[in-house]
Automatic annotation (TrEMBL):
<dbReference type="InterPro" id="IPR050855">
    <property type="entry name" value="NDM-1-like"/>
</dbReference>
<feature type="domain" description="Metallo-beta-lactamase">
    <location>
        <begin position="18"/>
        <end position="207"/>
    </location>
</feature>
<dbReference type="InterPro" id="IPR001279">
    <property type="entry name" value="Metallo-B-lactamas"/>
</dbReference>
<protein>
    <submittedName>
        <fullName>Glyoxylase, beta-lactamase superfamily II</fullName>
    </submittedName>
</protein>
<dbReference type="InterPro" id="IPR036866">
    <property type="entry name" value="RibonucZ/Hydroxyglut_hydro"/>
</dbReference>
<dbReference type="Pfam" id="PF00753">
    <property type="entry name" value="Lactamase_B"/>
</dbReference>
Length: 299
C-alpha cells in the first residue's frame, strides 16, 4: 500500500478497498471510506503520517463493512475527527444488525455476526446531502449513485476527480464475480446514466486497479450494462418455467459456474431478489404461491 497522487491535492491509497484522500492546506486530510478493519486503517494512517498528513474527515460512500470498518479506529486514534454519510447509509452504519438482517431475511445466524458486526460503536457525526458541500473551506460535490446500496454516494473534488464507491465494477471484478451484489436494479440502471453524465476527468472505483478517464469510464459503463443484460436474458429464459428464488440462484450458479461461500450465497440471493422485483414491477413476470413455496414465472 502506498499513497498515489491522482491530480492536484487528490490522492488515493490502493488496496482491497481503494481509499480516497484529499489534502487540505492545513495538512489535514479527508478520506473517502476507511477500509475493512483496524489493520488496513492503521496502515492507511501510517502511510499518511509518513507524508506529514493527519486524518480529520471521513466520507463513507456507503455502509458496507469494507468501506466503514475503520471508522471506529479513526475516531479512537484521531480525536475530533468527523465522519459523514448520507442519510440512508447513516442508518445502516450506526445499526450494524440491519445489513445482515435484510440479507438473511430474519435474525441472522452467528456467521453473519462474525462477518458484518463491528466490535465497537460506529457513529456518524454529520449527515451529508447531494449537491455542493463545504468541508474545511473546500467544496466537494456529493452525487447520489444508488443501486449497490440504497444511499450510496459519489464524492467529487475540485481537482476534477470523482470517487464512485461500488457504483461500477471493474473488468477484473466482473471477470472474477460476474454476478454482482445489487440492492436495486432500477436505481443501478439509472446510476449508469448519472455516471455517464458526470463532468470529471478522473474516475476512481473502490475495487479495481485503474484510474479511468472519461472515455474509459463510458466504456466500463457499457461493460457493466452488458453484464446485467446477460443476466436479464438468463433469468427471463429460466422463468419460462416456474421457479423459486432459490431455484433461480441454483441454475444461475450452474450455468455461470459460480463458486459461492455462505456469505456470497446470500449476496447472490439478494441480487436474484432485486432482479425479480424489477421484472415483477415491469409486469414481465408473475408469481404463484403453492404448498409453502413462492414461484415466479414469465407472464
Amino acid at each position: 500500500m502506498n499513497l498515489k497522487r491522482i491530480h492536484g491535492n487528490t490522492y488515493y491509497i490502493p488496496g482491497a478497498t481503494n481509499i480516497g484522500v484529499y489534502l487540505f492546506k492545513d495538512k489535514y486530510t479527508l478520506l473517502v471510506d476507511s477500509g475493512i478493519n483496524n489493520q488496513q486503517t492503521r496502515k492507511i494512517t501510517e502511510i499518511l503520517s509518513e507524508h506529514n498528513m493527519n486524518v480529520k474527515y471521513i466520507i463513507n460512500t456507503h455502509n458496507h463493512i469494507d468501506h466503514t470498518g475503520g471508522n471506529s479506529f479513526i475516531k479512537e486514534h484521531f480525536p475530533g475527527s468527523i465522519i459523514y454519510a448520507s442519510e440512508k447509509e447513516k442508518l445502516y452504519i450506526e445499526n450494524d444488525l440491519l445489513f445482515p438482517l435484510y440479507l438473511y431475511g430474519g435474525y441472522p445466524i452467528n456467521y453473519f455476526a462474525k462477518n458484518f458486526k463491528r466490535s465497537k460503536e460506529n457513529l456518524v457525526d454529520e449527515t451529508i446531502y447531494t449537491g455542493i458541500n463545504k468541508i474545511n473551506n473546500e467544496k466537494f460535490e456529493i452525487i447520489a449513485i444508488p443501486g449497490h446500496a440504497e444511499g450510496q454516494i459519489g464524492i467529487g473534488t475540485r481537482d476534477r476527480v470523482v470517487f464512485l464507491g461500488d457504483a461500477l465494477f471493474s473488468e477484473e471484478i466482473i471477470n472474477k464475480y460476474s454476478f454482482p451484489f445489487l440492492f436495486n436494479i432500477k436505481e443501478q440502471l439509472d446510476t449508469y446514466d448519472i455516471i455517464g453524465s458526470l463532468d470529471y476527468d478522473y474516475f476512481v472505483l473502490s475495487h479495481g486497479e485503474n484510474i479511468y478517464d472519461k472515455k474509459e469510464i463510458n466504456n466500463l459503463i457499457e461493460i457493466n450494462k452488458n453484464n446485467l443484460d446477460k443476466y436479464f436474458e438468463i433469468i427471463i429464459e429460466l422463468l419460462n418455467q416456474p421457479k423459486t428464488k432459490e431455484d433461480l440462484l441454483e441454475e444461475i450458479t450452474i450455468l455461470e459456474d459460480l463458486n459461492l461461500d455462505l456469505k456470497e450465497y446470500y449476496f447472490s440471493l439478494s441480487t436474484v431478489a432485486a432482479f425479480i422485483t424489477f421484472l415483477y414491477n415491469k409486469e414481465i413476470i408473475k408469481y404463484e404461491l403453492e404448498n409453502g413455496k413462492l414461484y415466479f414465472y414469465k407472464g
